[in-house]
Amino acid sequence: MILWGFLASMGAGLMTGIGALPVLFGREITRRTNDMMLGFAAGVMISASFFSLILPGIDHGERIYGSVPMAALAAGLGIALGAAAVAALNHLVPHEHFVSGPEGSDPGALSKLWLFILAITIHNFPEGMAVGIGFGGGDVSNGMSLATGIGLQNAPEGLAVAVALRGQGYGRLRSVWIALLTGLVEPLGGILGVAGVTVSTYVLPVGLTFAAGAMMYIISHEIIPETHRHGHQNRATTGLLAGLILMMLLDVTLG
């Protein structure tokens, strides 16, 4: 299962670089298209959080703890811990957003390039962890549906990252390379996630919902505000609903 989790999260992470490839051929995307693609990514993450992480976490908790209320409490604890962990990283690690600017402790201490990389890493690491945790209970189909959905949303996200870096003056090849590197943190999260929940079955319900809470924090704190900054909220919402529906279909079909 650890190998499955690593390979699947690696595949999902590589999709970030694949999605950025059109930048090499001079393709530019408009701001409204970029906002719609980020909305799509948010929709995939919301759907994955509920259908592939929270609901399975409650089901596993009910079997392990023998009580629906205990399972729900464990799920709530996991969600809160996941959100708190990303919030702490967001506060402590210096990074910079493409629109809102520097954030974290002493962001001026690092070059702008690394500030961007750290911001994207904070975003991508929990996604890889979610894929790994999806395999932690031995449920290959659930893990594969998560990896497929997150891989699909990583492609437009990779393009959005590369385009944003191009807008900051980076070259085409360097922009694609950085986008790929940010995706390659996902297998690290995948190993951590699958190894953690494999150690003990009692960790699985909290682990699944921990990953969901981390992703939900990112959606609310980063992605949705970003897509609504430029007056394209209708397109962003359309993209969100499309991503949510697609991931739901993938989860029902593959899971």
TrEMBL record:
Could you list this entry's UniProt keywords, alphabetically sorted: Cell membrane, Membrane, Transmembrane, Transmembrane helix, Zinc
Which InterPro entries did the record assign?
ZIP
Membrane topology classification: Multi-pass membrane protein
UniProt-recorded name of the protein: Zinc transporter, ZIP family
Which cell locations does it reside in? Cell membrane
Please give the superkingdom of this protein's source: Bacteria
Transmembrane region(s): 6-25, 37-58, 64-89, 176-196, 202-224, 236-254
Which family does the similarity line name?
Belongs to the ZIP transporter (TC 2.A.5) family.
One cellular component (GO) term of this entry:
plasma membrane
Annotated GO MF terms: zinc ion transmembrane transporter activity
